[in-house]
Specification:
The protein is α/β, with parallel strands linked by helices. It folds into three domains: about 190 residues, no CATH class; about 80 residues; about 220 residues, no CATH class. It contains 26 helices and ten strands. The strands form two sheets. Strands 3, 4, 5, 6, 7 and 8 form a six-stranded mixed sheet that branches. It has a four-stranded antiparallel sheet with strand order 2-9-1-10. A hairpin with a 2-residue loop joins strand 5 and strand 6.
Length: about 700
């Protein structure tokens, strides 16, 4: 029999051993192809130039992420290959007893790797091509693109890239297998099934102490990233402290539990002696005891997966959900009004003088009448004075607040001031609540939760402020919801609303116009915006400080683009991390099943039937799978809470749907691997019995 035929026969004969390996390889190839084919999928999409720029950026970032993904998948393939070699040690020993050289065995493995690689690449690419068509629809939906030009797409570039990356991985596996076979000794190969891990029983008292200390440390890490984030994480780079504490604590929790599980169960006599529970719990304790480090890594990878997927999906959903609320007008023009202080920054007196003209006046100098394009519009001003900084609005509460919220406070920055009439005009235009104040009152409007919390401390203390020589008291003991600048997220940290007659026009810092176009055509709206942009880019315009443009179209496209970018990166990395963690878990369990075949045969000799054995095996695998997942879920509760602090400006109302979607991913992939692992383990522990019957 030739080496190639023998390799092919071995693969066919041992297909059940390769099930996890094949499943992982096929998934890896498919996912790698799908996310690297996005560039080809977007070519036919009818989108704007700015959206195309976002798509180009996304494809470049996905391409960069693919290098990292390749390392993860490469490690996973090598890890799986180790399992397969260990699984076949006795077979290789028989080959050597029959006179086969190590070089010959290496050649068999060489051809097996090639055959497995070709099959997995072919099936994975086929699956990837099919899934990429669904991805095309997802991409089109995210970018709100026209799908009328849709056609079946095959990305030759993504295909070649996938073949090259996985080809390199298979070459590394071949080299690894050759080195391993070269180090093998005949006696070790023959007696491989008789060797077992020596399980050291840990001191229960020591395990209890370590568990308590680890739980306390983990609780402190949870506190740091949730309720105590502003008190314990200063400066921002201290975020690594809870990460390190959490990772180390996780390790010692697994270490301590590996020594406590058996002790706890043995104390429960009615449970311990029932059926095969004695055998089941000893097996489980042995598994956890010998895989503490692996369980820690798997749990942390699952934690990262849950947080990445939930946060990415939540961010995308929140950004798109906020568009109607935070960008209620078609266009917003804003220009800076300069004063004499700007002479030191390179501006001349003529530029400063021209900057004091209104937006309408400046545009008319360029023969551009903005009102001819707007059906309705509102003009307003923002003021600033050095006598009213953020710190001044907090008064005596400043010292306490700055120590608590160090990283958030621009204490010496002048606050924005707006007249009540200007604000109400904008609020009415946006459809927001309007307010009234007395001559000695002020209110603060904001929509950024963290800053609202800070400002409310001073408002509840009835903090008075001085504005343009006038002393004002707060009308409300908390911030009121509101904003004037259109955005994709909640960025208004606070605007001081004051009576009209106290402001000084010499302190105007921004002049703005918001409006709605006469036309609903996006093409016509973009054409108008392009005309204004051309004026701004004209060298002559430098003398007039022309306004910047902020439009609903631009905000929408930017939000959709950023949302899609975050979503695809999150999906890519999240799915790969999930596959890697659960595949490692599955291979660990299959390795244990291989090592413990004789133990199951002994149970049969003692009278245990297959139903009892299968039930014991199922319980072991279920607990083995659920243990790291449970720890990861507990970590994720606090991890997602921390992530919500980071993305709170985008809104958290979409968090629940993203968590549900993440749960679906976990159930599908985790459940799939669990089922395959259980069925494969059943086949492994039945092998000797079947061989005897045969």
């Amino acid at each position: 029999m030739t080496t190639i035929k023998l390799s092919f026969r071995n693969i066919k004969k041992s297909f059940k051993d390769y099930a996890i390996y094949f499943f992982t390889l096929i998934l890896g190839v498919a996912i790698f192809y799908v996310f690297n084919s996005i560039e080809s999928q977007t070519v036919l999409l009818d989108v704007t130039n700015s959206t195309h720029e976002v798509i180009d950026l996304m494809t470049k970032m996905l391409s960069g992420a693919s290098v990292f993904v390749a390392f993860i998948l490469g490690f996973l393939i090598i890890y799986a290959s180790r399992f397969l070699i260990k699984r076949r040690n006795k077979e290789f020993g028989i080959y050597m007893l029959l006179g086969m050289s190590k070089r010959k065995i290496s050649m068999i493995l060489f051809f097996e790797t090639i055959l497995i690689g070709i099959i997995s690449l072919a099936v994975g690419l086929g699956l990837g091509v099919l899934l990429s068509q669904l991805m095309s629809m997802l991409v089109a939906n995210m970018f709100e693109a026209d799908m009328t030009k849709y056609e079946f797409i095959f990305s030759s570039q993504a295909c070649i890239k996938t073949i090259i990356y996985f080809g390199i991985m298979y070459v590394i596996v071949m080299l690894f297998n050759t080195v391993n076979i070269g180090k093998c000794k005949l006696i070790d190969l023959i007696q491989t099934n008789k060797k077992s891990e020596k399980v050291k029983m840990k001191n229960p008292m020591l395990c209890t102490i370590v568990f308590i200390i680890s739980a306390i440390a983990l609780g402190y890490a949870y506190y740091m990233v949730t309720g105590g984030i502003n008190e314990t994480i200063k400066p921002p780079e201290d975020i690594f402290k809870p990460i390190v504490i959490g990772a180390v604590s996780t390790f010692f929790i697994f270490w301590s539990l590996s020594g406590l599980i058996l002790k706890i169960v043995t104390s429960m006599k009615n449970l311990y002696v029932k059926g095969l529970n004695t055998f089941t719990f000893r097996q489980l304790s042995s598994k956890i005891n010998t895989t503490v480090f692996s369980m820690t890594i798997i749990s942390l990878m699952l934690f990262v997966t849950i947080c990445v997927l939930s946060s990415a999906l939540s961010l995308k959903n929140s950004m798109t959900a906020n568009l109607d609320e935070l960008a209620p007008a078609d266009i917003q023009l804003e220009k800076r009004v300069l004063n004499e202080d700007w002479l030191d920054q390179g501006y001349n007196e003529e530029q400063i003088k021209n900057s004091k003209l209104s937006i309408r006046e400046i545009l008319e100098k360029f023969d551009f009448n903005i009102d001819s394009y707007l059906e309705e519009s509102v003009e307003y001003n923002l003021y600033q004075t050095e006598e009213l900084t953020f710190g001044d609005t907090l008064g005596d509460n400043w010292e306490t607040i700055k120590n608590t919220y160090t990283s958030l406070i621009p204490y010496n920055v002048a606050d924005d001031i707006m007249t009540i009439s200007d604000y109400n005009k904008v609020a009415k235009f946006y459809g927001n609540e309007e307010y009234t104040i007395n001559e000695d009152e002020y209110i603060i409007v904001a929509d950024y939760d963290s800053m609202i919390e800070i400002r409310n401390v001073a408002l509840k203390d009835n903090q008075e402020i001085t504005v343009f020589g006038h002393t004002l008291k707060p009308k409300y003991n908390e911030c009121q919801y509101g904003f004037v600048e259109m955005a994709s997220n909640h960025i208004n940290s606070g605007i001081i609303i004051v009576p009209d007659d106290i402001v000084d026009d010499n302190y105007i810092v921004y002049n703005s116009i918001i409006g709605n176009y006469y036309t609903d055509s996006l093409d016509e709206q973009r054409e108008i915006q392009e005309q204004i942009k051309n004026l701004v880019n004209n060298p002559i315009s430098l003398e007039y400080n022309l306004p910047s443009i902020n439009s609903k179209v631009d905000i929408s496209e930017a939000s959709i683009g950023i949302g899609a970018l975050v979503t695809f990166l999150g999906l890519y990395l999240g799915i790969v991390f999930l596959i890697a963690s659960v595949a490692i878990l599955a291979l660990k369990e299959l390795t244990e099943s291989t090592d413990n075949k004789e133990r199951y045969n002994m149970l049969r000799k003692l009278g245990a039937d297959e139903k009892m054995i299968n039930k014991s095996l199922f319980r072991q695998i279920a607990i083995f799978f659920m243990f790291p997942l449970l720890i990861a879920i507990i970590h994720s509760i606090f991890g997602i809470t921390f992530c919500s602090y980071i993305i709170e400006t985008f809104g958290n109302e979409q968090l629940l749907p993203s968590i549900i979607m993440t749960a679906i991913f976990i159930v599908v992939f985790y459940g799939g691997y669990f089922l395959i692992t259980y069925l494969s383990s059943k086949n492994i522990i039945k092998e000797n019995r079947n061989a005897r019957e045969y």
